[in-house]
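Fill-in record for Adrenergic, alpha-2D-, receptor b.
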Amino acid sequence: SLSQHVNQTSSSLSRPPSFPPHSQVVSVFIVLVVTVIILGTVVGNVLVVVAVFTSRALRAPQNLFLVSLASADILVATLVIPFSLANEVMGYWYFGSTWCSFYLALDVLFCTSSIVHLCAISLDRYWSVTKAVSYNRKRTPKRIKVMISIVWLISIVISSPEDGNETTRQECLINNQTWYILSSCMVSFFAPGVIMILVYCKIYRVAKHPRCANRHSSSNVDSNSSSQRRGELDDIDLEDRGCEHYLLPSPLPVRSRQMSLSKTKVAQMREKRFTFVLAVVMGVFVLCWFPFFFTYSLHAICRENCTIPETLFDLFFWIGYCNSCLNPIIYTIFNRDFRRAFKKILFHTHKGT
């Protein structure tokens, strides 16, 4: 992982296999906790994937972003965390130099892809707020899949195996050069994080000050799109009530306008709720990973002058991994459509979702 024995490298510490880093009790505790994290991550994110593909309320094209994000978390739990756990408990790298290189690359890839996914989601929502009608018409499954492919391509380029990685018989260490640490932290976390926060601030500003004139010019929305988007989470329109009448075609009878207005209000409420949910997802991601990336960057800048306790560094590292199991919990707590879908999957209830 990104944190693989950074402190050990700086102090030239190398534990032989005969001296495990933790007592037996602590090792058992770590194994139990991490096993729960792995199982929670896999089960929770598989539920997210199944829910999006089986629930009518979650079948909007843009929710494919959530499927891809959940897939990245599943891959973290199956291809990265088990090896990090073994390394933590045994105190040395058991799996050879070839897998070490892949393991380090995969660790950086999945972490980077998570935040780049969140960036793409925030941009998607911003475009759909500022260009509500035109962008929503273009927001097809094919277009979203292209965006997801670009997200993964960017992540792969950023995480390409680095020649400076060190592999010995007992250690699997990522490139410890200052330039690499700072550039990887900037590209993998800080820059996308700043972009994501700025975009969400803009979304909030647009939501607070809707542009009624722009909506008036695009009031003749295709009536077919309303049935296509019925039940979607992301039928993006964060307008004020004072602007709602601009969304309705004027030739409709009063009763039809009232029904359309009611559907529009439902869509607006869903959109506002899910915009909040995604803001929570992004905030939790930043909170989970910021301590690690901050201390990792600090280590690169001042080295021996600001020694970071190894236990604290390891704690920050594992808190970052915990983020992989949190998104399904956030969806469950804050979104009714996901709650209903999860309940239907787990308990085979047949109420419409």
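KEY FINDING: The domain at 6-347 is CATH 1.20.1070.10 (Rhopdopsin 7-helix transmembrane proteins).
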